[in-house]
Design a protein that fits this description.
Layout: E1 3-6, E2 40-47, E3 50-55, H1 58-70, E4 77-80, E5 85-88, E6 93-96, E7 104-109, E8 111-114, E9 122-123, H2 126-142, E10 147-150, E11 156-161, E12 164-168, H3 181-184, E13 188-192, E14 209-216, H4 230-248, H5 250-254, E15 260-266, H6 269-272, H7 279-286, H8 292-308, H9 311-335, E16 342-348, H10 350-360, H11 370-375, H12 390-395, H13 400-413, E17 418-419, E18 453-456, H14 460-466, E19 471-472, E20 484-488, E21 511-512, H15 522-553, H16 569-574, H17 591-598, E22 611-613, H18 628-632, H19 639-651
Parallel strand pairs: 14-15, 14-16, 16-18, 18-20, 20-22, 21-22
Antiparallel strand pairs: 1-10, 2-3, 2-7, 4-5, 5-6, 6-7, 8-9, 8-13, 10-11, 11-12, 12-13, 17-19
């Protein structure tokens, strides 16, 4: 029960709380008539044992409010946040659609409070807000203020005037260490309506989805320097892409040709380290008790690399990734039956290697017969176990010796991807796939053909080399994916290049990814300017020397023969453009542009360049070792990376890229 009474006067000037200054407000001489408050819906996110209340977009909030007012006593499900979450309106709970996540509380919010130590306003519970709104309505209607509301929990709220409301906590709820009276009576600021607080209400997402991207994480449960999960990192990447679409594809949005790109996370770490495998318990039994935190970090992250090279756990990992991608794809199609766009995949760190192996072992079609596979193994670069194994040959009555010879022959014929493998390494063909050097497992098939594969901070090149593979056939491409981009930060200690394994005879610089603001970073421009100034200075010195020499050779010197255009041989030899002085002519275009447009780098990316390097930030250039780990985890928040993906996606849709004015 809420007790409402009118306060006879203002607070005592001698009270401790009088030391706090309240905000000054401009009072209108004529009091407005009462207008019902407009609710806005919030949801609660648990971050580091603290509850953080975040607002839905205005579009989602309006849909929730409409469902709340029209559903009556029947439960209604409302899709929010790009249909990645469902809200059960009566239950006031928000559920994730595509991944496992604890349900979060949802509130219909009208009144908010903030203490001195709070960084943002917190919504009151709905029942508490309804009591405040009722008291506010009476005060406005009767034009009677300085009303005090006492709640059963001990809180007291005073409505001083139409703009100033304060809440006072009961002394019994104060912390025991608080001793001074001023701290005990410190009030909270109270606000009515979300329009009167500094809440960052997100923009709504376009309903039209142009492209779907699945993102596979690397080692460990954390994906960035802040130890966030793959879900949170993909959320940031999605937000960055939405912002870039608004700035770099504005005209396409206005014309209705650009909607948005949906990014969905793929989690395989939980399945590997879950109860089903029991691997964590097995590892824990043999882990030493010293330096426990470091050993726990090693067991939870670095061991994933060893698990992937184990036949047993590698099978678990690839099965989990493929089944999760197929599950997400099927669920997405169910929720978006109108979707007709293409699908791409992204892999970070070890996740890129997993996708590389999966895409290498995809079948072109599903109608091939087993006889066709045995006669044409090069058409389908899959594990030998997918063709015919020892059990099939034993069923034909073949002895053990001939069976092994046949299996070894099939494995030796499976070399569709790479050339120049080391002939000195002893490989047990009973357990290894010669085609890609990977442990012999059954690779599952994806339910779709990806349009493109983007690798972030990828060790693919290193793993292929360690497997004994020296060169990628320039004619090779993934059976079901025609585009491949190897994206990396220049200081990433885990990233390796791909192009030198295809074009080893040419020293190619990677393609520089443009800054999303349409220029190179300032320190890189300065570096190029200094290099250009040095070149110009050298040319000026040579030019001055040439002028002085010409003044000498123009003197009567019949011993110097003339050239076709009247220039002496000495003039030709001393000219800066001549090779006589050992200086080659300067190129009119940059090496990057020439290589980008003229060099063919195999068919992994349809003849286009594969290696793309980000520009380091100015502070990173001071000490590359200091930022090495951060460089491996920077891709999730990199706007330059997100823009590269968007450009490749929308170029194929025929939508022009627009560089916004600076």
């Amino acid at each position: 029960m809420v007790v409402l009474q009118q306060v006879s006067g203002v607070l005592n000037e001698n009270s401790p709380s009088s030391t706090f200054s309240f905000e000054l407000v401009d009072m209108d001489p004529a009091q407005p008539l009462y207008q019902p408050v407009k609710p806005h819906w919030f949801y609660c996110r648990r971050i580091e044992s603290k509850d953080l209340w975040l607002p839905f977009s205005r579009e989602d909030s309006e849909r929730l409010e409409q469902a709340c007012t029209t559903s009556g006593n029947e439960e209604v499900m409302v899709a929010v946040e790009g249909e990645r979450y469902d809200v059960r309106v009566l239950e006031r709970q928000r559920y994730a659609v595509y991944w496992d996540q604890r349900p979060s509380e949802v509130r219909r919010c009208t009144w908010f409070y903030k203490g001195d130590k709070d960084t943002r306003y917190v919504p009151y519970p709905e029942e508490f807000s309804n009591s405040l709104e009722e008291a506010y309505m009476i005060a406005v209607t009767l034009d009677e203020w300085k009303r005090k509301l006492e709640f059963p929990s001990g809180e007291t709220v005073i409505l001083h005037n139409p703009k100033l409301f304060m809440q006072y906590q009961p002394i019994t709820l104060q912390d025991e260490w608080v001793s001074s009276p001023s701290e005990q009576t410190r009030p909270r600021t109270v606000k009515r309506s979300v329009d009167n607080i500094t809440a960052e209400i997100p923009d709504g997402e376009p309903e039209k989805i142009d492209h779907l991207v699945f993102m596979v994480h690397g080692i460990g449960p954390a994906c960035d320097i802040r130890f966030r999960s793959i879900i949170q990192c993909v959320n940031d990447f999605r937000s960055a892409s939405l912002s870039l679409l608004g700035s770099h594809y504005r005209r396409g949005q206005e014309e209705g040709r650009v909607g948005r790109v949906e990014f969905l996370p793929v989690d395989w770490h939980s399945a590997l380290h879950g109860d089903a495998t029991g691997v964590d318990q097995d590892i824990q039994r043999i882990t030493l008790p010293s330096i426990s935190r470091l050993r726990h970090f090693t067991n939870d992250t670095l061991l994933d690399l060893f698990f992937y090279n184990s036949p047993t756990y590698c099978q678990t990992i690839v099965d989990t990734v493929a089944s999760e991608v197929n599950r997400l794809h099927s669920l997405f199609k169910q929720r978006h039956p109108e979707f007709t766009g293409a699908v791409s995949v992204v892999g970070h760190s070890l996740g890129s290697l997993i996708l590389f192996d999966l895409l290498t072992n995809q079948k072109i079609g599903s109608g091939e017969t087993e006889m066709d596979e045995c006669l044409h193994p090069n058409l389908h670069p899959v594990s030998p176990q997918a063709l015919c194994d020892d059990t099939d040959l034993a069923a034909l009555g073949l002895p053990l010796g001939p069976r092994k010879k046949i299996l070894n022959f099939i494995q030796k014929r499976q070399r569709p991807l790479l050339r120049g493998q080391s002939s000195t390494s002893a490989v047990d063909y009973e357990y290894f796939d010669v085609g890609i050097g990977q442990v012999s497992i059954n690779y599952p098939q994806l339910a779709f053909h990806p349009q493109a594969f983007f690798a972030f901070g990828s060790p693919i090149g290193m793993f292929l080399t360690v497997r004994g593979l020296k060169r990628i056939d320039p004619n090779y491409s993934f059976p079901t994916c025609k585009n491949f981009y190897n994206i990396y930060h220049p200081f990433d200690p885990v990233a390796y290049r791909i192009e030198p394994m295809i074009v080893s005879e040419v020293d190619l610089e990677p393609m520089l990814i443009p800054h999303h603001k349409g220029r190179k970073r300032m320190h890189l421009e300065l570096k190029e300017s200094l290099t250009r100034m040095s070149t110009d200075l050298k040319n000026n010195v040579l030019g001055s020397f040439r002028t002085a020499w010409q003044s000498l050779v123009r003197m009567p010197a019949p011993s110097l023969p003339q050239t076709e255009e009247g220039e002496t041989s000495a003039e030709r030899c001393i000219s800066p453009e001549s090779t006589c002085v050992g200086e080659p002519p300067e190129s009119t275009g940059s090496a990057e542009e020439e290589e980008g447009h003229q060099v063919q780098v195999g068919m992994l990316n349809g003849g286009r360049r594969i290696d793309y390097v980000l520009q380091e930030a100015p502070i990173e250039s001071f000490n590359e070792y200091l930022f090495a780990i951060q460089s491996h985890l920077c891709y999730w928040e990199s706007e330059d990376t997100a823009l590269l993906l968007l450009k490749e996606i929308y170029d194929k849709l025929g939508v022009a890229f627009e560089q916004p004015p600076q």
